[in-house]
Design a protein that fits this description.
Blueprint: H1 18-21, H2 30-33, E1 37-42, H3 43-46, E2 48-53, E3 60-64, E4 70-75, E5 81-87, E6 90-95, E7 100-106, E8 116-123, E9 130-136, E10 141-146, E11 150-155, E12 161-166, E13 173-179, E14 184-189, E15 196-201, E16 206-211, E17 216-221, E18 227-232, E19 237-241, E20 247-251, E21 258-264, E22 267-272, E23 277-281, H4 284-288, H5 290-300, H6 304-327, H7 329-342
Antiparallel strand pairs: 1-2, 2-3, 3-4, 5-6, 6-7, 7-8, 9-10, 10-11, 11-12, 13-14, 14-15, 15-16, 17-18, 18-19, 19-20, 21-22, 22-23
Length: 351
């Protein structure tokens, strides 16, 4: 057979692998993929979930199906998208070009089609790469954090700058969340060795600092936004309240570094770096103590003593109201008709 020499230096051998054929494979380490990817319901003709993904070299925001088929692609950033967050119909993306873009997740025109992101406005003010973003549709606020430790808070309707907060140590921002009900801003460093999560008010004051030995890996707000679940590098899972900063419970360690946390319908699902999935039950009494149980029992069926005290207090209020009306100068000026209206007995069913 004829001799076949090596290919020329200008041309490399043809390589055909399954990895080259996977068009939706995201670059970077697995720990960073969760920062620029999210799930949307109703993708691929309404039969599954759509995947929002960044991390592409050309700054594209892609909407893909579960099967890996690209359904929509939008370009608003000049460099790679590093992080994204979703709240209701609002989406925010941050990129290496130091800008954050606010998107509107428009419902599909055809019921079986997927949601299409539409750009609303660009949020500027950073001078370094953006590493974390957060958005709250309820508060109409969007937050972005950069690698220089600076956090900017903007309004969503016009993009106005509301507040600027700087990390005390100037560390890269890795955890950023907005709690809508207690109006709190959660800021944490990206380094796993940093084991502190700081809670700020919307005015910029640091209210609480949550510390977790070994470092923080994952942070999640509970559905009611009153508690925060923190997963550590050592597999420890702790829950703090945002109103007073109290540690409500310390769950049983998962045994490996926490990679993801999800909470829904009273259950907490934790994924570890070793590929294990651990489930916990979120009991309201465990989060809030005996106050929730006592308040629920009083509202459903008050005791006879509580009912008697409530009736006595209502009679005192009615008597005070009648006395004030009779002593008022309006009663003497307005005459009998006016006195009948203001100083008469309360309506039926009031006492």
């Amino acid at each position: 057979p004829p001799f076949r020499g090596p290919p020329p230096a200008s041309r490399g051998p043809v390589v055909s692998t399954m990895r080259r054929q996977c068009s939706t494979q995201l670059p970077g380490a697995d720990s960073r993929k969760s920062r620029y990817s999210a799930l949307l319901p109703g993708g691929d003709g309404g039969r599954g979930a759509a995947v929002l993904s960044g991390g592409h070299w050309d700054g594209t925001l892609c909407v893909s199906s579960e099967a890996g088929r690209t359904l929509h692609a939008a370009v608003q950033h000049s460099r790679t998208i590093t992080c994204l967050a979703v709240s209701g119909a609002l989406l925010i993306t941050g990129a290496e070009d130091t800008t954050a873009v606010l998107w509107f997740l428009a419902p599909p025109s055809v019921p079986k089609h997927t949601t299409v992101p539409q750009p609303l406005r660009a949020l500027r003010g950073h001078v370094r790469e953006i590493s974390a973003v957060a958005v709250s549709a309820h508060l109409d606020l969007a937050a972005s954090g950069a690698v220089d430790g600076r956090v900017l808070l903007h309004t969503c309707h016009n993009g106005a700058l509301v507040r600027s907060i700087t990390h005390p140590e100037g560390a890269t921002i890795g955890h950023l969340h907005i709690a809508s009900l207690p109006h709190r801003l959660l800021v944490g460093a990206a380094a796993t060795s940093e084991g502190r999560l700081r809670v700020y008010s919307l005015g910029g004051a640091c209210l609480h600092t949550f510390a977790l030995a070994g470092g923080i890996r994952s942070v999640l707000l509970t559905p009611e936004h009153m508690c925060v679940v923190v997963g550590g590098v050592s597999g420890e899972v702790c829950i703090w309240r945002l109103d007073d900063g109290a540690l409500t419970c310390r769950l049983e360690p998962a045994g490996a570094a926490i990679s993801s946390i999800s909470a829904r319908d009273g259950e907490l699902i934790v994924g570890t770096q070793e590929g294990e999935v651990v489930g916990y039950a979120l009991d309201p009494e465990m989060l809030w103590g005996r106050a929730v149980r006592d308040a629920t029992a009083w509202a459903t069926k008050p005791s006879p003593v509580q009912a008697l005290k409530f009736g006595q207090r209502r009679q005192e209020l009615v008597s005070d109201r009648s006395r004030l009306v009779r002593e008022s100068p309006l009663a003497s000026v307005s005459g009998a008709a006016s006195g009948a209206i203001l100083g008469g007995p309360p309506p039926r069913g009031y006492t």
